[in-house]
């Protein structure tokens, strides 16, 4: 549906004693890349929260293929592949500068009302942006 590529550099504090990026940090990068995809659509997470919505992660799966190291520049290709009811399904592939896939992942997030914490349909503004991008 919608794809965006983000670039980041791995910081020293994100690595472990072996010099590899620690496995827990991949999840932080997925989060950042997902919101950069939204931002590329003209929607910020802050504006969604201010409108009364939240998007918790309800499922996460990832595969570590080869390590990433301190000071490596990585590119994350994030794709919103499907919307079903309140759920949004994303895929990610993280590449090093040699264009080798170092990690792949899938997440599912769900729109919920901020106050009630109950699942809800995506807001109209969000869906209008999806339709607009799908047409172009």
Question: For the terminal residues, how far apart are their CA atoms?
Answer: 11 Å
Strand arrangement, major sheet: 1-4-5-6-3
Main β-sheet description: 5 strands, antiparallel
Q: Residue-averaged pLDDT, rounded?
A: 93
Q: What structural category arises from helix and sheet content? A: alpha+beta
CA-atom Rg in angstroms: 16 Å
Shape: elongated
Helix content: 25-40%
The H-and-E topology, N to C, reads as: EHHEEEEEEH
Query: How many distinct helices?
Result: 3
Number of strand segments = 7
**What is the beta-strand fraction?**
35-45%
Provide the low-confidence segments as ranges.
none
Identify the notable features of this structure and list them briefly.
136 residues; alpha+beta; 5-stranded antiparallel beta sheet; two-stranded antiparallel ribbon; 3 helices; 7 strands; 38% strand
Characterise this structure.
It is elongated and about 45 Å long. Strands 1-4-5-6-3 form a five-stranded antiparallel beta sheet. The protein contains three helices and seven strands. The longest helix has 18 residues, at 23-40. Strand 5 (87-95) and strand 6 (101-110) form a beta hairpin. The model has no long low-confidence stretch (mean pLDDT 93). By secondary structure, it is an alpha+beta fold.
């Amino acid at each position: 549906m919608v794809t965006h590529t983000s670039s980041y550099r791995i910081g020293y504090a994100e690595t472990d004693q072996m010099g590899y990026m620690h496995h827990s940090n991949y999840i932080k990068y997925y989060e950042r890349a997902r919101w950069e995809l939204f931002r590329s659509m003209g929607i910020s997470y802050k504006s969604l929260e201010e409108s009364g919505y939240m998007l918790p992660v309800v499922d996460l799966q990832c595969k570590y293929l080869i390590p990433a190291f301190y000071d490596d520049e990585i590119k994350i290709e994030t794709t919103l592949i499907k919307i079903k009811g309140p759920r949004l399904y994303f895929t990610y592939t993280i590449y090093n500068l040699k264009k080798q896939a170092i990690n792949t992942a899938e997440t599912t997030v769900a729109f919920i009302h901020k106050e009630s914490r109950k699942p809800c349909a995506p807001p109209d503004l969000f869906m209008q942006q999806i339709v607009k991008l799908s047409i172009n």
